[in-house]
Design brief:
Belongs to the phosphatase 2A regulatory subunit B56 family. The protein is an all-alpha fold. It has 12 helices and no strands. Helix 2 packs parallel to helix 4, helix 4 packs parallel to helix 7 and helix 8 crosses helix 11.
């Protein structure tokens, strides 16, 4: 669609651009792009070009503010995705200079949305590459506005503490209800089986002041290490032409031999 608008300037006027960008941005958000494979094979980056990124490269700041909050709410969900390619693609936006300039101008609205997902997954995400990308994003936010970063950290800490209090109050309330139920003479007849043990998140504790200082130190060291790894390997953003080839396909092609003994030349050709 971006290419169509670009190459059809006589048909599509610039007055339509703001509405088109808003419409497509709102409707293109998705956690995992649907695969064109009818068998439901897993996500393939070659089947899904980063269309949204191309739109954001040309969007005006005034139009960016209209789609900013739904955009970063969706990116926060993507960062939390257990599918590492989804989280990886979302975090690549922090390597785009123009997008970072837009984020910097709107940091007061963007950082409160993104910080909880970034902090939580910096501890709990299973993929090491995602850790490096998250620390890079946190470092950029920290350098962008140190006071806002500290405020978001304290707000996250307060929200976690409130969550623990709510959980404790809920458990105490259920205990009171169960104690009242025991007083009923028919309780043994209708007693339910014991409940399953509760499922806890990998990150259950509220961050302390020491955790916050450790976060800042870790962000610095991990982000620097990630930049070194990038220089050794390659740029982070991969397009179709830069995607690695399948190892098994390469080996199969190298091992393939023509069955010359089964091929007979035509007498007429000779």
């Amino acid at each position: 669609m971006v290419e169509y608008i670009t190459h059809s300037r006589d048909v599509v006027t610039e007055a339509i651009y703001p509405e088109a960008v808003t419409m497509f941005s709102v409707n293109l958000f998705r956690t995992l792009p649907p695969s064109s494979n009818p068998t439901g094979a897993e996500f393939d980056p070659e089947e899904d070009e980063p269309t949204l990124e191309e739109i954001l490269d040309v969007i005006e700041p005034s139009e960016f503010s209209k789609v900013m909050e739904p955009l970063f709410r969706q990116l926060a969900k993507c960062v939390s995705s257990p599918h590492f390619q989804v989280a990886e693609r979302a975090l690549y936006y922090w390597n785009n200079e123009y997008i970072m300039s837009l984020i910097s101008d709107n940091a007061a609205r963007v950082l409160p949305i993104m910080f909880p997902a970034l902090y939580r997954n910096s501890k709990s995400h299973w993929n090491k590459t995602i850790h490096g990308l998250i620390y890079n994003a946190l470092k950029l936010f920290m350098e962008m506005n140190q006071k806002l970063f500290d405020d978001c950290t304290q707000q996250y800490k307060a929200e976690k503490q409130k969550g623990r209090f709510r959980m404790k109050e809920r458990e105490e309330m259920w205990q009171k209800i169960e104690e009242l139920a025991r007083l009923n003479p028919q309780y043994p007849m209708f007693r339910a089986p014991p409940p399953l043990p509760p499922v806890y998140s990998m990150e259950t504790e509220t961050p302390t002041a020491e955790d916050i200082q450790l976060l800042k130190r870790t962000v610095e060291t991990e982000a620097v290490q990630m930049l070194k790894d990038i220089k050794k390997e390659k740029v982070l953003l991969r397009r179709k032409s830069e995607l690695p080839q399948d190892v098994y396909t390469i080996k199969a092609l190298e091992a393939h031999k023509r069955a010359e003994e089964f091929l007979t030349a035509s007498q007429e050709a000779l």
